[in-house]
Amino acid sequence: APMEHSKRHLVLIGMMGTGKTTIGQAIAAQVPLPWKDTDQALVAKWGCSIADFFALYGEERFREEETQMLEACLAEPSLLLTTGGGIVLREQNRQLLAERAFVVHLDAEPEEIIRRLTQTNEERPLLKGDLRQRVYDIYEARRELYRFADVRVDTTGKSIDEMATAIVRAWQ
Ligand code: S3P
């Protein structure tokens, strides 16, 4: 059935390690929306990894690129969009998202995030050094910035499909 939505896009935000990609994949299997990911789209555009881009050009340039990519994605017809954990750092991004998307904040306690991030070997430039300390610092610095979301989902102890179904229901 066609969905009527003033806030057309369905967007997942949240810290690294909260499951945006995993849950995004499960949602993509349930709804007829094209799925895009801001990080994946940037990697495809540059032809280099996020880690390499950070090393070559620094975080500020990355944030510029990220904002441009977000704007481009939100200008498209309805998308399922997963985002980098830092998408909320810029007020401009939070405003755009609040206006144009149904925003879902995926949340987990720092200890759970640390556990999950320790299990992946994906290179994350912001976690270089003391992973535990970095996660706690970033969690504290951003917790308020994720609050504008339409819904918050605690991702601890739930199955991926259960969360995907709940999110789709909230969005519809
Ligand atoms: C970042 C999160 C990463 C990626 C970049 C910066 C952040 O995405 O955009 O390394 O600032 O939290 P994930 O949240 O998919 O790991």
From TrEMBL:
<keyword id="KW-0812">Transmembrane</keyword>
<feature type="binding site">
    <location>
        <position position="142"/>
    </location>
    <ligand>
        <name>substrate</name>
    </ligand>
</feature>
<keyword id="KW-0057">Aromatic amino acid biosynthesis</keyword>
<keyword id="KW-0808">Transferase</keyword>
<keyword id="KW-0418">Kinase</keyword>
<comment type="subunit">
    <text>Monomer.</text>
</comment>
<comment type="function">
    <text>Catalyzes the specific phosphorylation of the 3-hydroxyl group of shikimic acid using ATP as a cosubstrate.</text>
</comment>
<keyword id="KW-0028">Amino-acid biosynthesis</keyword>
<protein>
    <recommendedName>
        <fullName>Shikimate kinase</fullName>
        <ecNumber>2.7.1.71</ecNumber>
    </recommendedName>
</protein>
<feature type="binding site">
    <location>
        <position position="39"/>
    </location>
    <ligand>
        <name>substrate</name>
    </ligand>
</feature>
<keyword id="KW-0067">ATP-binding</keyword>
<keyword id="KW-0479">Metal-binding</keyword>
<feature type="binding site">
    <location>
        <position position="63"/>
    </location>
    <ligand>
        <name>substrate</name>
    </ligand>
</feature>
<feature type="binding site">
    <location>
        <position position="124"/>
    </location>
    <ligand>
        <name>ATP</name>
    </ligand>
</feature>
<feature type="binding site">
    <location>
        <position position="21"/>
    </location>
    <ligand>
        <name>Mg(2+)</name>
    </ligand>
</feature>
<feature type="binding site">
    <location>
        <begin position="17"/>
        <end position="22"/>
    </location>
    <ligand>
        <name>ATP</name>
    </ligand>
</feature>
<keyword id="KW-0472">Membrane</keyword>
<dbReference type="GO" id="GO:0016301">
    <property type="term" value="F:kinase activity"/>
</dbReference>
<feature type="binding site">
    <location>
        <position position="85"/>
    </location>
    <ligand>
        <name>substrate</name>
    </ligand>
</feature>
<comment type="pathway">
    <text>Metabolic intermediate biosynthesis; chorismate biosynthesis; chorismate from D-erythrose 4-phosphate and phosphoenolpyruvate: step 5/7.</text>
</comment>
<keyword id="KW-1133">Transmembrane helix</keyword>
<keyword id="KW-0460">Magnesium</keyword>
<keyword id="KW-0963">Cytoplasm</keyword>
<keyword id="KW-0547">Nucleotide-binding</keyword>
<comment type="similarity">
    <text>Belongs to the shikimate kinase family.</text>
</comment>
